[in-house]
Hints:
Blueprint: E1 2-5, E2 11-14, E3 17-18, H1 24-35, E4 41-42, H2 43-50, H3 56-76, E5 84-86, E6 90-93, E7 99-101, H4 102-115, H5 120-129, H6 141-167, H7 171-184, H8 189-201, H9 205-222, H10 229-238, H11 252-269, H12 277-293, H13 297-313, H14 317-333, H15 340-357, H16 360-376, H17 380-397, H18 400-416, H19 420-432, H20 440-456, H21 460-476, H22 481-500, H23 504-510, H24 527-533, H25 538-551, H26 557-573, H27 577-594, H28 597-614, H29 617-630, H30 636-652, H31 656-673, H32 676-689
Parallel strand pairs: 1-7
Antiparallel strand pairs: 1-2, 2-3, 4-6, 5-6
Helix pairs in contact: 1-3, 2-3, 4-5, 4-6, 5-6, 6-7, 7-8, 8-9, 8-10, 12-13, 12-14, 13-14, 14-15, 14-16, 15-16, 16-17, 16-18, 17-18, 18-19, 19-20, 20-21, 21-22, 22-23, 24-25, 25-26, 26-27, 26-28, 27-28, 28-29, 28-30, 29-30, 30-31, 31-32
Amino acid sequence: MVRVQLLGRFAVYTSHGEITFSSIKVRQLAAYLFWRQGEWVERNLLRGLLWGDTDEKRAAGSLRIALHYLRQTLKGSDIVHDVLEVRRDAIRALVTPDIDVDAKVFEKRAKEALGKPEDAKHLIAATSVYKGSFLEGMDGEWCLIERQRLARIQVELLRTMVGESTSNGLYQTAISFAHNWLDSDPLDEEAYRTLMRLYSMIGQPSRAMEQFERCRQMLEVEFGYYPSRETIFLCEELGLSVRDENGNSLDEGEVWRKSGQSKSKRLDSMKRLSDDPLRNASLLLVYGEDKVLQGNVEEGMQALRKALSIYIRLNKKEGQARTRLTIGGALLQAPMEPQPREALRYIEPALAHYREEGPSANLCRALLLAANAYWETGQYDKAAALAQEGLELASATNDKGSEVWLSLILGAVRRDQYRLKESRAAFENVLQSLTRFTETKDVLKIMFERSLLALLMAELPVAESLLKEMLKITGIITPSPNVEQLKFAVRANLSYLYLLKGAVGQAKALCPPPNVGKYSTSHLGLLPALIISAIDNKPATRELAEWAHVNVSSLPYTYVEPVTQLISEHTLLAGTAKDALRWTAAGVRFARAQGWPGWEAVFYSRRSVALARQGNTKAAKVCRQRAERLADEADRWTLAWLAWADGLIARNESDETTSEKHLVRSVTLFNDIGIKHHRRHVQADMKRLAGTSEL
């Protein structure tokens, strides 16, 4: 059995003890290959990572020598087979039952544990594998990024253990786990606050105060700033007296002054790093990225821009490109308010650099971020082209992680363009690799984007299952502004789905309040409630249409067509055909300007029904033909609407037999989808045709 230790100091153990490597570069090569175990790693990438400061020819020679010594070292141990597989262009460490890589085991157990947080055995089994930071002592960028990621997983595990223990009344156990959490990240104020609460729960206010003092001293020594106002609020809540460095009590005004001053001190602390500017830039890069991920966007961006200025001053092109990508990614992932247009200002120069210089791993990342930013800004064709390019590169280099995210972006782009068949194919690639994701936020993002496609494709059971699972997950994970926003979106979509199914009571119960997160009554927050109130209600429908008239132009591109569709359908079903015609015309114009035939078909089919209801048979036929010609082959909704239009057109032409046949087909199609609301309106038209009273 071969045991590879990546968590802590890098080491490879066999039954005869630890393997000794001949040089630092050989150790680094071995560590990187075992980290990427099972994946083909391009020689070009290895040369850039390990010998990036030397010319290409010398780097290639150094790699051949290091690889030779590594293979000889591994063969000289008691390993019974060749651990490495070597090709002319790439190398990989084999995945076999007798090779145990602790970082891989940790991620697998962490995923299982976070999937069942109530099972303490899984949580303990996962955290016990984490013996230390990833590859302590190695300082390449790839080490720092992975170290940061795995440390966050460990902290999430410990936080989960604290939460589960606390909820079960096991306060001493929770305190033990909270101290482990604090040991993992001694600068995390949330860990100190958790311990303060726990000690107060068991009646030990002095111990709670000790945690505040430790927090204050640690932040003062490391960064020169005072604890945050959230920590001060907690002190007040717990009845703790805040003291200065000499043990004297501080009044409330002095406490708030110190806390308010800490913001500028945090920024000043970044200037006091070392006399080595390149090392400073590297530290600022990692520090800034971490702060952005924690939600401290302003502080993180200050560090990242400082790092970029150093790289620009020293004319380090690779450092500039790497930092630009990090800033671009941070802007895309910023809590509450992503800034894709600003992100493109940084991503595009980095993408140009990596197109010329490589390595392919960074080019993949640049293509991924650029595709994401173009998608967020509504530049769908550019986003799709970059995603396709990235997928080809990721496939050629066996970069499975980038391949999955690029497939997700391509699927979302094609979905928003109403190219449903293409979108479904892209999402199938994503879902096949779902087990690769260990972070809850990544899994939730994939599930949410796929649920939106399921709604458009009339796969209501799929959409309902995904949304319900997401609602359950967001209810148990640590609250944050992003989680609250996601919960709002999930509840809104699930509420709308129940509305379509005719479960109005469930829809109202799930409808989110309009004041969650960044949403307000003048923006998307009010939309779900307006939709529910507008069901078969002309005055409320007009209110919904007025809201849309004011707000639709300011909506993100992703929302414009779906919201316009909602308004056009509600106005049509409420009996305000003139309003429906105006909204369907607006939808057609926008879709045609964007070059989205699938969306044109959606609005032409609804428009055909509206025109037929008004008795304008000729125009209804024209719209019906356009919808059929432009419709995506996976669009089940439009088929049902076209059958409805055919029934009304035939009724206008006094062909009652044909009309009944098409209307029955429309009812069947809506019924197959699972939509009672639309089906009920078609049945009302059938009854009117038969001369009965309205439903």
